[in-house]
Amino acid sequence: MAFRSTAEAAGLAVTILEPSASANGRVLYCLPGGGMSRRYFDLDAPGYSMAEHLAGHGFTVVTIDHPGVGDSPPPEDPWTLTPQVVADADAAAVAQLHAKIGGIPIGVGHSMGGMLTVTAQARQRPYAALGLLGYAHSDHYELTALAAHLNDEEKAVVGHPDAIASELVRLAQARFGRPLPKGDTRRSDFLLAGMQVPEEGLVAMDGCAASLLAVCGLGSMLKCAAPDVRLIDVPVFVAFGERDITGNARATADALVRCPRHHALRAERLRPQPQRRSESDAALGSARDLGGRRPLTRALAAEQSAAISARCPVSGPAHESPRRRRAPGAGAAGCRPWCPRYAKEIRPPCR
Description:
Rossmann fold, disordered C terminus
């Protein structure tokens, strides 16, 4: 069993789960997706709490309610809760908590929370590594299932960061009408994608339903954090399931051009039940590896990147080889090294 405590950090409500056995020195700061509170990571049903499971493996887990969500109060005008404002508030809470808890801070975001984790890292750099769950970046976002839920006016700004920045609040007002509509985490076909979920799981999900941050929710659908993905220069773990509607996580790896290490886990035939051992072990191993044995600094990231390059069997001038990967927008001459040890699951060879 983990030791739970609640607290407030920079005005946000948090729950801290500390391992009952020896801690491994890694602290996971978990940010929920749209319409969900921090309880999403700590569902009140046996075998469904991700936070408790991770704490049992030595991680300190901190779950955080975004401003205006769950137990965190909204500002006077909730329409001001743009992705940048919310990400900065989340980062301020993480910085305050890190000063007290210490350890290696790893940002974990689910869906909209993944977008906000990326935005916070690009703007404030609070984390030594990231874990993105149910979040994917794609240069061909119009082909994803999620994009089918956008109207024509919203689709017109996708891929245009300046247009998104100037129109996001207005588009959110037109779509939702209210800045904090109630989220639906239980019976939504949009979220469950036809899966048969045990009643105890649905009841537990009811307990994490919260207000949706309308501006951030639409921002996540419009992929407003797309430019920020290319600024991430810490190790990243991307996890997605076969039913995810956010697109192919392999595209996220292509956008992580400054990231020294990344790993993707695809949970095939994912079922709404406690994780299978192979999936759990793979995720835990990646989280420990991303955290590193030393605090991750720019110097260490550069050192690790150089070490990976040294071990990679690819060498010589750029060429059309099965072990080289074409950079986005580049021709055959623009291929860059592709390291099979760290990228074999998420970087297909050049075509």
